[in-house]
Every structure is written in C-alpha cells, then in structure tokens.
Amino acid sequence: MKKAQADPMKLIVVAVILLIAMVVIIMIFRGLIGKEAKQAEGTIDKIGADTDCDGANDIIDYCPKDPDVTKKSDVSSRSDCKDNLPAKPC
Ligand SMILES: [Ca+2]
Ligand SMILES: [Ca+2]
Questions:
Q1: Are 83 and 57 part of one and the same domain?
Q2: Ligand 1 centroid, distance to 85 Cα (angstroms)
Q3: Residue 17, class by beta-carbon neighbours within 10 Å (0-12 exposed, 13-18 middle, 19+ buried)?
Q4: Is the domain of 38 the same as that of 65?
Q5: From ligand 2's centre to the CA of 37, what distance in Å?
Q6: How far apart are CA 54 and CA 6, in angstroms?
Q7: 51-56 contacts: CB < 8 A, separation 24 or more?
Q8: Which residues have CB less than 5 Å away from ligand 1 (the ion)?
C-alpha cells in the first residue's frame, strides 16, 4: 500500500492562507490596542492637569476651576467653588 503524500501546492496554499489570517488578526489587535493607548494617555494628561494653576492637580483639587480653593475645608460646599480660571495658562 502506498503512503499518502501531501501535495506541496496544497501545503503552500494553506500556509499562505494562514499567514494572511495571522496578518489580519495582528492588524485588528494593533488597532484595538492603539485606541486603548490613546485613551490611557488622555486619562494620564487629565490626572496631571492643574486647570486653575493653584498648584493642586485637578484630581485632588476640591475646586479645579477656582484658584483660591484647593481643599474642602476652604469652602462650606462645592457650590461655593467659583469659575475663576486665570486668563493666561500656568
Ligand atoms: Ca488646581
Ligand atoms: Ca483650585
């Protein structure tokens, strides 16, 4: 009985199809990862921002748009925060 041999052309066709599928999958994942990285950069920029230039980053500033207030103890409630952004950037 003769042993079945793989047709070299079929192997090449299958290899090319697998290669194309891998390239497509990699391109899809690179696109998804790129979007996530841009979102993370935006979040990091927001965390480091000091919108009112009072020395307290927005994430810890009780009134991020009021340069006269940085702590909760400086005002009775958040409604006392004013929108006094400086005219010039920090
Ligand atoms: Ca601030
Ligand atoms: Ca402030």
A1: yes
A2: 10
A3: exposed
A4: no
A5: 29
A6: 74
A7: 51/85, 52/84, 52/85, 52/86, 53/86, 53/89, 53/90
A8: 50, 52, 54, 56, 61
Number of the ligand closest to the Cα of 75: 2
Residue 61 lies in a domain: yes
Distance 44 CA to ligand 1 centre (A): 15
Distance 39 CA to ligand 2 centre (A): 25
- Domain with 20, as residue range(s), is 9-48
Give the predicted TM-score (pTM) of the model. 0.51
| Number of separate domains in the chain | 2
pLDDT tens for the 90 residues of the chain, in order: 556 677 899 999 999 999 999 999 998 888 888 888 888 888 887 778 999 999 999 989 999 999 999 999 999 999 999 998 877 778
44 and 57 together in one domain: no
Q: What ligand is nearest to the CA atom of residue 65?
A: 2
